[in-house]
Amino acid sequence: MNDKRYIDVDWKNGMRIRFDYNNMLAENVGSAGITEADIMNMRPRFTKAVENMRNKRKSMEWRELPYQNKDLIEDIKQTAKYIQENYDAFVVFGIGGSALGPIAVHTALNNLRYNELDKQLRKTPKFYVEDNIDPERIRSLFQVIDPKRTMFNVITKSGNTPETMAQMLIITDVLKKALGSGFSKNLIATTDELKGNLIKIASEYGIKTYYIPSGVGGRFSELCPVGLLPAAVCGIDIEELLAGAAYMDSIIESSDSNPAYMFGALSVIAYEKGNNISVMMPYADSLKYIADWYAQLWAESLGKRLDNDNKQVFCGQTPVKALGVTDQHSQIQLYTEGGFDKVVTFIKVDRFREEVTIPHELKQYEDISYLCGHTLNELISAELFGTEYAISKSGHLNNMLILSEVNAFTIGQLLYFFEVATAFAGELLNINAFDQPGVEEGKNVAYALLNRKGYEDKLKELQSIKPKDEKYIK
Amino acid sequence: MNDKRYIDVDWKNGMRIRFDYNNMLAENVGSAGITEADIMNMRPRFTKAVENMRNKRKSMEWRELPYQNKDLIEDIKQTAKYIQENYDAFVVFGIGGSALGPIAVHTALNNLRYNELDKQLRKTPKFYVEDNIDPERIRSLFQVIDPKRTMFNVITKSGNTPETMAQMLIITDVLKKALGSGFSKNLIATTDELKGNLIKIASEYGIKTYYIPSGVGGRFSELCPVGLLPAAVCGIDIEELLAGAAYMDSIIESSDSNPAYMFGALSVIAYEKGNNISVMMPYADSLKYIADWYAQLWAESLGKRLDNDNKQVFCGQTPVKALGVTDQHSQIQLYTEGGFDKVVTFIKVDRFREEVTIPHELKQYEDISYLCGHTLNELISAELFGTEYAISKSGHLNNMLILSEVNAFTIGQLLYFFEVATAFAGELLNINAFDQPGVEEGKNVAYALLNRKGYEDKLKELQSIKPKDEKYIK
After folding, report:
1. Which residues, listed in sequence order, are joined to residue B425 by a DSSP beta bridge?
2. CATH homologous superfamily of B4-58+240-428
3. A202 in reach of chain B (CB within 8 A)
4. Rounded to an integer, what distance in angstroms lies between the CA atom of residue A208 and that of residue B169?
5. What pTM did the predictor assign?
């Protein structure tokens, strides 16, 4: 960590994420754009939402994560160091909010082929986030790791998530066979301090444990031990990550027309004007999984049937993950020529961590010689500009987040920015952004099918389902 | 290859992909569903589209790819064998249609951690598809391969794709430094036989070349050398892949109400009833990138401003990629409780290539003991059933593709199924599914910014753009 960063205001300001929404406005994209009148209409709700965010801050425990207890940070760093020195691999067993943050931050800040690097280049343990229960995937995991030399971090807030607990049972069996009674030294539990089975198991077997604060939901948990331990194990500077989040918090608190509130408000206006799709399109491979993390945050927080007054609203933009420049060759045809039903958010990186010059080769071929001497960095930048220009010219809404660099400080800002923007959009929509009642039905059916005790009525309900009509199966 | 498969009709029929659309219908999902009247209204267009598909078959050259020249197949197999015996890695440089098919087929049919496996387990060369120009990504590629021991397959139909040709210039420089004048033996070109620069370069330097048939567009090219060579190098049985595609062709030709036409027609009806989103959600990690391949096919083919009568239609469903069970913890809240604006297509696998039993561990914890003794396979199956049930019960449209197994024969079927379904949807929508005029504007701007000859007027246009208003950048 470079201590200078905490005192050098110029450096911080140079790293400030900017949100450019010129191309959300009718004056720039034409009739599908947001007008002065749209903004005037939103104003009373905006004012109310600002007030709500202020009043509810205490209940939004995730908002205080940037300012965590120094002892906890120290403990995480010590544990990470111990793992780095004693293990070859680190595996996260978790799903949803327990997986998407660790994947996004790791991909952003480490080598893009981290696990394939020679150990000398990589330095820190191999890293896996296992967020599915596909039997082919778990078999393949055991083909590339040695469980004896691997630390397994089981992450579930509730302590009962069936996918994660199934993985916990499998790994307990594997480790007992490999290590006998000492199996628990290859396990770390990250869970609620009081609720669920994982905390009880951890306490019975003496498994090292980190707590997920009770007021922090899965999709808002990346800046607690859920994300901090995996990041630290991979060599990421977690204090910089938190400093970035704190910096974004200070930006947000300093003005009502801050980037997060503006993103939330413009998204809601666009949504209510018929844009039911939100495309997140970073122009950097390192940020690819930020789009996945955002997709959960946005979908699960804002996709709600009921508003706070119990009125049916069937609310929510559908997030779409895209990657520049790659998806110019897949999605841009649709984005420029298709319906006026989406907002594209580009994420631009001003300075990559590498620069590659296209060499002066094959110059005799005039139709490609224009590339020679340019850098790939310039090519990406020109293509992003071209795509933004084409989408705007065709009258489709778009905006842009600009990162000077991808580093722990800017990623911390970015995460916190999206979290607050999402919460703010929830206030504007008058919905509860922090629950997920819609996932219960499917879970209960699965429990019933597995003959879990207490789900006998649901099983009866399933037995009465009309069978599929074969004439509609081709 | 198991020759039995070509004669054993029972085996083939057992491997037949089924398309279940019960939950597209109002009788099963309620008021958002498709009614008898919707289907009656569609009938004349359906009949016309069937006729068009018949009349245009000759111009749709990709439809004949399952029946390719045996000499070509033999040549590809020989080349693959030579590469397997003489190289440690195989790198595809391509983007869009030159990348998504190779990635999807490789992921479907090989180990999920193929590159990380010990060479003895993997047997065939490491495999990389480089479909972006991010400088950090290309640097990391050279950290994990030895160019001298790597075969590079440069794929571009036009022979001019700037991203791919930039990669071609970079690799030419690297290989010349490593191998001197023999650099071209580590290169294979896959491109149009007559047009573009790549074919000229290949001929000047004696680079081994495969042709992309002139009537086969990028997104319909997986079953030509674009996809067949990479698949063969990774040990995939390409004749099985083609046999599967041919089998699907026979199914399609045997009835007008075949699965591909039904998928196309129901998608169009749903789209015209307001479902502007198409979610592709396989319940298997191996099929994850089939969703990416589909996303290009569907978006680029059907996302069109003009119909065949030059009327502005701003047409096209936006594809969304999801993965079961993972995204139950990310997207299902929205899919069950959000708007009636999407069709979810599940892809179900009846038999995985592995079975993993959840061991009888920690049985003292009653809330998780219901898992013990079940397989992960059963857990996935129960969760898919639960999710399908919950989404249907909440009144949202969904359908399901069912694969008995994931193997080269079923993947061949699946690819051909989607290609025909897409073409058929294009006929129903009266649009040209085979062009992509909307990508030109962005490309031209990028060329202008890179000072390419012939784009001086575009550069002037750019110089007259109103600068961004700083007040809309937060």
Report:
1. none
2. Glucose-6-phosphate isomerase like protein; domain 1 (3.40.50.10490)
3. no
4. 52
5. 0.98
